[in-house]
Write a structure and sequence with these properties.
Helices cover about 45% and strands about 20% of the residues. By secondary structure, the protein is of the alpha/beta class. The chain folds into 2 domains: about 1-170, Rossmann fold (3-Layer(aba) Sandwich); about 175-350, Dehydroquinate synthase-like, alpha domain, CATH 1.20.1090. The strands form 3 sheets. Strands 1-2-9-6-5-3-4 form a 7-stranded mixed sheet, sandwiched between helices. Helix 3 (about 80-90) crosses helix 4, helix 5 packs parallel to helix 6 (about 175-190) and helix 5 (about 130-135) runs parallel beside helix 8. The longest helix has 18 residues, at about 175-190. The chain starts with a strand and ends with a helix. The protein binds nicotinamide-adenine-dinucleotide and glycine (GLY). Nicotinamide-adenine-dinucleotide binds near residues 42 and 152.
Length: about 350
């Protein structure tokens, strides 16, 4: 088992291994006394792994009840959030109890946000089961739900007490969902690790999944340790996300987060060069890696549609918006763009 320690407002360990889900109860006992557990999962993941996790937790003395919701981004909603809060209250969950998120980024973001607000905060644990959740969303404490106006507009920074990534769960992941997680992996290489980017150019992510996940978690850990609340450096982790979130919104969530981020990175890279924000065009590095991992690099929405959908982005201040763009190979920078220049930036990036 590989471990990465995070030292943010809470200290916790990200455990990365293969085939330990049936002994998750023992692992949890190392960080949390027996208590009541609300196991939160979507229907697909619960059907695959719910009983295994429940049995292991129960065998170790935890008293488990489960909340299972329909899979998909639509479930990261205010309505579902409220239902889980009520479920916790109806099951008399107290401040010393625990929420466990078993699933992808949707489950983790939603459960984390419930944990951050129920009784003003209860412990929660992440058991990520998608590539995206293992390399990104389960680590660093960003929790959120979507509002009708846009993605992740309601949320909190709230760290889990532990993360348990069992790579064996990735064997049941549809290929497309596996690939979507690769977008966030490529993001890490682009923003701050040239060696890792070169590794991704030459090697298969799937064949090296455990060490790739560990490297991504280390990079994220370092950024989060230095800037947990995203006052500066952490914004780099949003490379591809401002335009990506706009793509998700324009598609009514039918384009997945990972695919949208892939397209967002491609547009930001080209747009930065074509508008003179970056001196070099790194598209010839980025696009082949995205394509090699079966990720899209463009979309049919117009610059105007994407611009309008970007305006509610969290990285917008009154008249500027922070955009992340490549500066050097394996190094991104944060650029404050006047809001009125964003449409042209996207236009240039789409061409
Ligand atoms: P997801 O949670 O919807 O999972 C994708 C699909 O895979 C779902 O249908 C799910 O049922 C299925 N699935 C999950 N694990 C499986 C397994 N092991 N086997 C078979 N099927 C499985 O989506 P995601 O791509 O994991 O996460 C996307 C979400 O993460 C978005 O809402 C995004 O905003 C959020 N996100 C958050 C952060 C953060 O820092 N908090 C970072 C990146 C993304
Ligand atoms: N996924 C971006 C972040 O955690 O900051």
């Amino acid at each position: 088992m590989e471990t990465v320690k995070v030292s943010a407002s809470k200290e916790y360990t990200v455990n990365i291994g293969t085939g330990f889900l049936s002994s998750i109860g023992e692992k949890l006992r190392e960080i949390k006394n027996v208590c009541r557990v609300v196991l939160v999962s979507d229907d697909t993941v619960f059907a695959l792994y719910g009983e295994k996790v429940k049995e292991s937790l129960t065998n170790c003395g935890y008293s488990v009840c489960e909340y299972v919701f329909p899979h998909g981004e639509e479930s990261k909603s205010f309505e579902n959030y409220e239902k889980i809060l009520n479920f916790c209250a109806e099951n008399s969950i107290t401040r010393t109890d625990l929420l466990v998120a078993l699933g992808g980024g949707v489950t983790g973001d939603l459960t984390g946000f419930v944990a951050s607000t129920y009784l003003r905060g209860v412990d929660f644990v992440q058991i990520p089961t998608t590539v995206l959740a293992m390399v990104d969303s389960s680590v660093g404490g960003k929790t959120a739900i979507n509002l009708k106006s846009g993605k992740n507009l309601c949320g909190a920074f709230y760290q889990p007490i532990g993360v348990f990534a069992d790579c064996e769960t990735l064997n049941t992941l549809p290929e497309e969902t596996f690939n979507e997680g690769c977008a966030e992996i490529i993001k890490y290489g682009m923003i701050c690790d040239k060696d890792f980017l070169e590794f991704l150019q030459k090697n298969s992510i799937r064949d090296n999944i455990e060490c790739v996940i560990k490297r991504c978690v280390e990079i994220k850990r370092d950024v989060v340790n230095r800037d947990e609340f995203e006052n500066g450096e952490r914004k780099l982790l949003n490379f591809g996300h401002t335009i990506g979130h706009a793509i998700e919104k324009c598609s009514n969530l039918s384009i997945s987060h990972g695919n949208a981020v892939a397209i967002g990175m491609a547009i930001a890279t080209k747009g930065a060069y074509e508008t003179g924000v970056s001196e070099e065009d790194f598209s010839d590095v980025l696009l082949p890696i995205l394509k090699k991992n079966n990720l899209p690099t463009t979309c049919d929405f117009s610059a105007e549609e994407l611009y309008k959908a970007s305006l509610k982005d969290k990285k917008r201040s009154f008249d500027t918006i922070s955009i992340i763009v490549p500066d050097k190979l394996g190094l991104c920078k944060i650029v404050k763009l006047p809001v009125e220049e964003l449409q042209n930036f996207i236009e240039k990036g789409l061409n």
